[in-house]
Specification:
This protein has 679 residues and is an alpha/beta fold. It has four domains: 4-154, Rossmann fold (3-Layer(aba) Sandwich), CATH 3.40.50; 180-344, 3-Layer(aba) Sandwich (Rossmann fold), CATH 3.40.50; 380-581, Aminopeptidase (3-Layer(aba) Sandwich); 606-674, no CATH class. Helices cover 38% and strands 18% of the residues. The chain has a seven-stranded mixed sheet, with helices on one face. The chain has a seven-stranded mixed sheet with strand order 14-15-16-17-18-20-19, with helices on both faces. Helix 7 packs across helix 8, helix 8 crosses helix 9 and helix 16 (449-456) crosses helix 17. It is globular and about 100 Å long. The model has no long low-confidence stretch (mean pLDDT 89).
Amino acid sequence: MTDLLQIIHQQRHAYQKLRWRLPIWLAGSDAYTQQQLSALEPEGASYWLGQQAPVGFTLLSAKQKQQWLGTECDLLVVDARHAVDWDLVAASSGCLKAGGLWLFVTEQPDLWRQQPNPAAKRVLPYPLDAAVYTGLFKQFWLEQLQDAQWIKIREDNSAAVPLLPEVLVSPQAEQPYRSAEQQQAVAAIHKVVTGHRRRPLVLTAHRGRGKSSALGLAAAQLAQQGKTDILLTGPSPVAVQTALFIAANLLNRPYQPGQNQLLNGTIRFAPVDALLAEKQQNTVILVDEAAAIPTPQLQQLTDLYSRLVFATTEHGYEGTGRGFQLRFQSYLQQHCPGFQKLHLHQPIRYQANDPLEQLIFKGFLLEQTDSVITAPLQPKTFSYPIKDLLLQPQKLQQIFSLLSLAHYQTDVMDLWALLDNPALKLYTLEQDQQVIACALISFEGELDAELAIEVSHGKRRVQGHLLAQSLAFHCLQPQLAEQKMARIQRIVVHPLAQTQGLGSQLLSFVLQDVLGLQYLIGSSFGTTLALVKFWQKAGFSPVKLSHQNEQASNEASVLMLYGEQFRALQQQFSRQLYWQLADKQRTLDPALALLWAQPPSIELTPQQSTELQLFQSELRPFELIETHLLCWFNLYYAKVEHQTALLLVQRLWQKHEWQQISEPQAKQKLSELCKLLHL
């Protein structure tokens, strides 16, 4: 039997000298692991991830994740014997400092992989019970880490101690910088402020590379140089807390968590929507976690402001770094061709090639690989139950990297759900062993009649049945929730293979397979005109639109169903939408309003027609004929020239004031445009 403390004593000095973290896997019976853990003393800041933390350890919980995410510790124990929250395992690993100890504790591997994981209740659909059901993530984790560089201490074996990985020496940095790359990043931020206008900087990095600290250091230095308006923004105030803390430290000022400004507002947090609503003058804007901000808002910031820094996590799929790269940076190339990009490789809390970081990368598929797409494209279709992909980790890596591009926010929870939720199925288009398109389907519904009624009355909600519950509650169709349903969660084509009809090809394959199994089919997504046209062309119709934009995409979420049998629901939706356009849907894209809304038809009286003709001849003011024009437009909107129709939708249906309409000098143009109308 190997003694844990003995191994730590033997190995830790070498890891500390190299500024690496020491990962150890301790596996055995409860009695054995408890005996080993009881001898472990807390040291410095000691964190515990599990059910109950011993004295001297800080228990990490999901509720307090934002509070501990940016902190540091010397010892981190992941007690995975009875339950393991994989999202927190990945997130907490970044807290451990160089020379620190990471201890992963389980039962014997063969027993542990077969045990249920109660923490999986976060990802399992009703009625699966996480206390009973055993998913695939544990098995995947063990398979992935068979050859990982960590010390293995098992009750029934002697300790397995790997050879130390290759040492990668990083260049030293001057104070106050934590790395030479961080110093370069701060210099690049200064260049944005002092150099040519409209040359933004895109600063990307894996987690723990000091990009947020670089923003804070630059903000403090700019304030010291006399800059008086330095704005930090991000998806939430929490996103800029690290930058503010670092800035306060350099300025020798006190800082309290939650504080959103320094030096009487010289450095301060400003929400993105406030920056877009009212342009700030003579300011520099430092954006942290930019990938979590919807691309349309990033584009608007770029159009409004000339001195911008966009910092974001580009870590495999985490933080949608890849989606940010493909969506937003292509926009920058077109509109700000002189923009600069800097990527930080060097960790600041530990040395490069750190064994724990490599373990986390491999265990959560964070190693990003670039695809090679060869023409001509003649892909074949495949479908996979998730368990079949356990033996094909490279294909799973390709699929998950691709799926992450189809959504604004992808994290470890999505990978966890993919492997533990048995109600999911994957479809792909592949060529030359390369996945070039994929779709993820969630099988839902089949709720019993009593539960469906309770859901429709708002008395119950169950996890994992978005389509069924939305139809039961929002559309008051509880009988549909009793049927078998398939929800297309994501469908994505590799960016190098888009606009070639592959998305439609894959969707047709999915529909053919699922319809053959007698499922109702639907999808829910952030509304853009291009996406809506894609789904409508495939035979889907809208039946529900959210009243508020999703935080992740800044777009309303639409629910669409496949097939003619939902025509009545679609017509009901269109009639309701018309009346909502002047209230809850005032911000809806007018092109979507024109596509979906069904206004009431009221015939014009002879008097109204005469007045409209006078308006056409500029002999009647708009204010006196507005209601007549509304009646006319409701009758003939489908025949009106498109740009004119969009203008009238905004003014007549959505009740926007003239100054709110994006069309320049809209009111002045209206009478001229109305000459095109046939009255």
